[in-house]
Structures
1.
Amino acid sequence: MNDPAPVPDLTDFSRVRAELGRFMLNRQFAINEVMTKLTILRTEFEHLHDYSPIDHVGSRLKTPEGIIAKARQRGVPLDLATLGKEIRDIAGIRVVCSFISDAYWVAEMLTKQSDITLVEVKDYIAEPKDNGYKSLHLIIKVPVFLSESVEDVIVEVQLRTVAMDFWASLEHKIYYKYDQEVPARLQQELTDAARDANRLDETMERLHNEVRAIPRRPAPHEAPASVVRDLLAANQRYRDTA
Ligand code: 0O2
């Protein structure tokens, strides 16, 4: 039989509290780092194209109670170093995209950055869970530069479409409402709804690609290309003579 998980020494309560505070703060810093990267990717994309690949982004830091519950469930020792390694969704970010291809694009752009280490990919879009859950999960490590050290912090990034997110939020609520024992009929309906959501995603992506292939007509207030060209040429002549 395994030895019981060691319990933290609470005699020095203020030291434990300070260490836990530091631990949580570093995870929040890691979230901030990744959120900044996402904002840059999103803003640059919007500047170059005429739509946004990201509908919205959310983040959450697991509560100490949530961390301890997950650790106990998995038999993970309750020391901060092990928790930081084994509980990989303490720092969590959810990126909700317009289309499936956008979720993969954001994942690729994020993971190819030189300071990001990709630890694991769980592609529940390509291989949905039995209940129909779909999402692309990235477990990444991001360096957090502190005053006297650098800490590599694990962040879980979940990427999914609006339809997948809608489904997952409701399923999560139902799962907790029934204390994880969801009646078979509801489970079946959820699985059917996941299939419908997937069909919607595929149709929307196809329509989106079709519409993107049509050359864009200038909006009534937009200056025709020739006017813009003349302006640029005039600007160049001015610079040459200045
Ligand atoms: P909460 O309340 O969202 O935090 P790992 O973290 O990789 O060591 P884990 O946790 O089994 O192992 O990984 P997995 O399967 O990738 O799940 C991580 C998170 O994905 C979950 O966190 C959920 O947020 C989400 N998720 C996974 N499966 C489902 C599902 O079937 N339905 C819904 N709605 N969400 C799911 P937590 O900690 O379970 O919950």
2.
Amino acid sequence: MRASEVRQKFFDFFKSKGHVIVASAPMVVKNDPSLMFTNAGMNQFKDIFLGNREPEFLKVADSQKCLRVSGKHNDLEEVGHDTYHHTMFEMLGNWSFGDYFKNEAIDWAWEFLTGELRIDKDRLYATVFEGDEKDEVDRDNEAAERWKNYLPDDHIINGNKKDNFWEMGDVGPCGPCSEIHIDLRSDDEIAQTPGSELVNKDHPEVIEIWNLVFIQYNRKADGKLTSLPQKHVDTGMGFERLCRVLQKKKSNYDTDVFQPIIQQIASLTDVKYGASDDSDIAMRVIADHIRTIAFSITDGQLPSNNKAGYVIRRILRRAVRYAYTFLEVRKPFLSGLLPALIETMGDAYPELKAQKGLIDKVIHEEEESFLKTLATGIALLDKIIDETLQKNYTVVDGKVAFELYDTFGFPLDLTELILSEKDLVVNRKEFETEMEAQKARARNAASVETGDWVVLKDDNEEEFVGYDFCETEVFITRYRKV
Ligand code: ATP
Ligand code: MG
Ligand code: MG
Ligand code: MG
């Protein structure tokens, strides 16, 4: 089943259960000091859960563009090395705002996976919250009892607070969650070790696919939980993981969500996917990062030197360096992946098509400017690595990392990534001291900071619809297709 059909089936199914299908919120979050990027489907409904906004519909479903590269959820290190964590991914979700609760959420999740999509029931596991004495919360027997209609006892697993209790923050709405995991190992392997022992243990073939959150408590400032008058359901399912399951692949990257991009990388670099571990990781990282970069730009966040903009710049430079080191790319090539990205996601997210010209231009310029200093920076770093290894040291001077940052545009985490490949680390304290000293120098110089005005026009088919203010203090002139 093609990815686009999977997404459509999800929408159709929940529509048939009375849900209204709503659009994804932008991946870039504005006007919320606690969050730079949308990291879960619930973000756009936060005010409803907090009781600050009335829901327009009581039952909705959507596919939300999420990014997990900062804050509470940061999966950056996993990306490309494992087969199922991405920086940007789609989270399919269904929601009840004070309408249905646990029973329907569980029944429909089961019906969708095993009825509609015909996933093998024997391979599914459900986790339920085991309870917590300190919070005076019992095991989630309601969820467990409902699962008993579908699963044998040894497929219903108790889970701890970390995995099975969701909280928005120190105070506010929260509640237990029940997750669906799937065991994709061979029958032989399953006969040797039951899947129940591998759930939530980072096994690459026993993975979490769907989280059903039951928002039923409110945590007060004194830490105590009270029951909410209105109970809500908030679910999130990894779209790329679901596609992998349905397409019977070993990795999310082998599905039609990623393969066109990976094949385009292969053809542009003349390196086959499968040629070596290093080049495969590089291709997966690049295929992942191009999505993040492109969607950030369409959603109003250009690469820049601060906050969310710097997160995107770091990701872009990380992709460029993987291409440089492992695929021998010496010229800008990332924007050459846009046609493949548009092929895989352009129908579901037309903003990609509408803003292709903008994305192309921004990526090309960023890449070109970083490539100018990358080779010299890498040569310097290689020399430092050799010297450090020769001395049998494991820590690299923070001043070197700062020079790489300041002169060659290497974000600290990029330097750290390159060093970690040789089991070396940076003296962060020294790096930070250098950074502080530079900031002080800048303040003393009393430089006047000005925001940049970026006026970019895509093509003639678009009309100007107004200015948009971004966190980076960059103004983007927005155009809408006519
Ligand atoms: P995991 O334990 O695998 O890291 P999670 O518990 O952090 O996942 P949730 O916050 O429960 O994830 O998000 C809901 C669903 O979103 C998960 O069940 C999973 O299918 C999907 N998901 C989470 N993180 C990622 C990611 N980085 N890339 C792709 N899909 C993800
Ligand atoms: Mg996680
Ligand atoms: Mg988890
Ligand atoms: Mg989870």
